[in-house]
Design goal:
This protein is an alpha+beta fold and 215 residues long. The protein has one domain (2-69, 110-192): Lipoprotein localisation LolA/LolB/LppX (outer membrane lipoprotein receptor (LolB), chain A). The protein has 2 helices and 12 strands. The chain has helices at 2-38, 202-207, and strands spanning 43-53, 58-69, 72-77, 80-84, 88-93, 98-103, 124-134, 137-146, 153-161, 167-174, 179-189, 211-214. It has a 12-stranded mixed beta sheet, covered by helices on one side. It starts with a helix and ends with a strand.
């Protein structure tokens, strides 16, 4: 009987040790990604996005691109443009001739472009996940679960190219069953950028007759 309990205890301790090792490996890999990202002056990403909710019979696929520099970004997505100048977010919808100007909501759960490559640094538990071979590239997945139990996000899977330390795929699963997948098709760094790329020219849109709202 004593031997049986000892074996159970040993097995449970091995499980705890393996989990801790996996979490440490996952965090170390994410730190490598973070340090690589922060070493660039700017990053340009072309991506494919899919939104899926089987219960609601939703399955959408689209493409977009984003330029990032520190926290600033310029995003082209779903027929609209979104600009963050470090203080405010400007959403420009040419089809409706509308511009919305709003402050950043720091409490928002969703991964915004400015957080896309760094959001995992805080507020999550880490777990070492599967390794995939994608066209000869080794993609290691790390699973993140929010520490905040009130988060609307159930989990995030980050697929990381083990050679370049660049993010290849992000899979976010919400507690409502919605799965959002971002797959990076092109990743370029230190591109020549216009000095006004992250500057919103309000007069330009006023002259075009756009309706401008502030939230």
């Amino acid at each position: 009987m004593i031997k049986k309990y000892f074996l159970l205890f040993a097995c449970s301790m091995i499980g705890v040790f393996s989990y801790a090792q996996g979490a440490d490996k996952a965090k170390a890999l994410l730190d490598d990604v973070y340090n690589k990202v922060k070493s660039y002056d700017n990053i340009y990403i072309e991506f494919k996005s899919t939104l899926e909710n089987k219960e609601a019979n939703v399955n959408q696929e689209t493409t977009g691109n984003v330029t990032l520099s520190d926290e600033k970004y310029f995003l082209n997505y779903l027929g609209a443009q979104q600009l963050f100048d470090g203080k405010k977010v400007y959403t420009i919808v040419p089809e409706n001739e509308e511009v919305t100007i709003e402050d950043v909501n720091e409490d928002e759960d969703n991964v915004s472009p400015s957080k896309m490559l760094t959001f995992y640094k805080t507020g999550h538990n880490y777990k070492w996940d599967i390794l995939q071979n994608v066209g000869g590239r080794q993609i290691q997945y790390v699973k993140l679960t929010p520490i905040d139990s009130n988060s609307e996000i159930q989990s995030v899977l980050l697929g990381i190219d083990t050679q370049t330390k660049h993010i290849y795929k992000l899979i976010q699963t919400g507690k409502n069953g919605t799965k959002t997948t971002l797959t990076v098709n092109s990743f370029k760094t230190n591109q020549p950028l216009s000095s006004t790329l992250f500057t919103f020219n309000e007069k330009k849109y006023e002259d075009k007759g756009y309706y401008i709202t502030r939230n």
